[in-house]
Amino acid sequence: MSTSRSPTVAGLPAVEPLLRCRGLGKRFGSHRAVDGVDLEIAPGEVHVLFGENGAGKSTLINMICGVLEPSEGSIEFAGVTRLHTDCLSVRAAGISSVFQEFSLIPDLTVAQNLFLGREGSRFGWVDHAAAARRAAGLIGDLGFDVDVGARVGDLSRAHQQMVEIAKALTGEVRLLILDEPTASLTEKEADRLFQVIAELKAKGVGIIYVSHRMREIKAIADRITVLRDGRRITTVEAREVSEGQLIELMTGRAVDVLYPPIDHRPGAPALVVRDLVLENGAVAGVSLEVRAGEVTALAGLVGCGKSEIGRAVFGLEDIESGEFMLHGRAMPDPRPDRMLDAGLVYFPSDRGAEGLALGRPILENTSMASLHLPDFSRLRVLRKDTERRIVNGIAEELQLRPLDVGKAVGALSGGNRQKVMLGRGLTRDFQVFIFDEPTVGIDVGAKVEVYEMIRKLTESGAAVLLISSELPEVIGLANRVYVIHRGKVAAELQGGEISEEAILRGFFIESTPRPGGIQ
Fold first, then answer.
1. The domain that contains 16 carries what CATH number?
2. What tens digit of pLDDT does each residue of 26-42 get?
């Protein structure tokens, strides 16, 4: 493995860097989020930023985009040293970005979002028809299946991700920054994005790519810069470094096992769903069981209905028909408060919008589901000392960083935000845990910690329902898999039957329930 500091890209001659950062640093009070980072991006290069959550990746790209002003160092773009400027000026210079937190306006259509502020006009009026045609052309060129007349707030997160990517490619783009762009995309959609990236490379566009997904990093990266604790550890040629070496560079330690072996001991059904039908048609007659002492997974393509099943169980979807049993007790009208009191907790995939109050401290976010319990309050008066002691203990157990429960959740990295939400499940005696895409947007080290938490819960006798688009995650953790296709169970797999081939087969066939199964 060799390191590289020059912008020489495999297959390309040495060229002047498109972007050059020198000694770039950012302080927030006494905390140094980025410390003296050097970075060079060549035209036509895919340069991956790799590091744990909290390593400084987001802060670094925010300085490049003009969102944050550097505390020290310089940024040179296209041969011009840039003083701190606003985002619009940076965008006009040809730097475009796609962040994990979307910049879309939910009440506007796809076309309106794509050309907001750059609408064409005719006789002094906005030409909506022309904008719709331009939007349809752009979306079509990218190969995305999105209705440009649809209201963005009505789209799935995957389709919103596609719109965000398309928006970044409007106008002239010389440097494209992509922060976890495939987090909500199917494998097919991600492959199409990689084709778009290849086309941009061929045109000389430089690309900064932030991801924790090893397979895609190795597939598309030319060079990889590893960050740890705000510092640049090294820059390496992607073809010369192994996955194990990358993980060790990122964490400073070797990670031997990604998916911990789980001692599944299936007990009685803790959660039973029968003939579930949703009013919106996303789920059409699903039946399944989640047993104590076992990880049960729902696998399927984006939009297949798997997430809606988890939401319906917790009372977040309008149900047309169906039955729910929790520990043998009928739950005829599921609502979040009733399900929590019955021992079931649900962790949504969209942490920012549904799972956390980003402006409130870790303390409140962790304890909010348990404030009425005797451990936290007496005679309707909150026992603040007890609350802080319990939450501090949970934060230490989950290795939350920084270990300051008074800190606002919005200031945390994605991995630590996920830990805060998961910590909520440790504040009371839950027996059924529903995890919807629990590792989206978090680094390998944080993933290992989430998987270890799932292992401990399962081996303590809890029932775990894992909803995931990551096939390796499903295969590595689950003992029972329901493959969801077009709102129905296409296949049920157990133990040794679980394989990538068997799951993928279920993605594209009609419902074929297990003979003698519960459907």
1. 3.40.50.300
2. 998 888 999 999 999 99
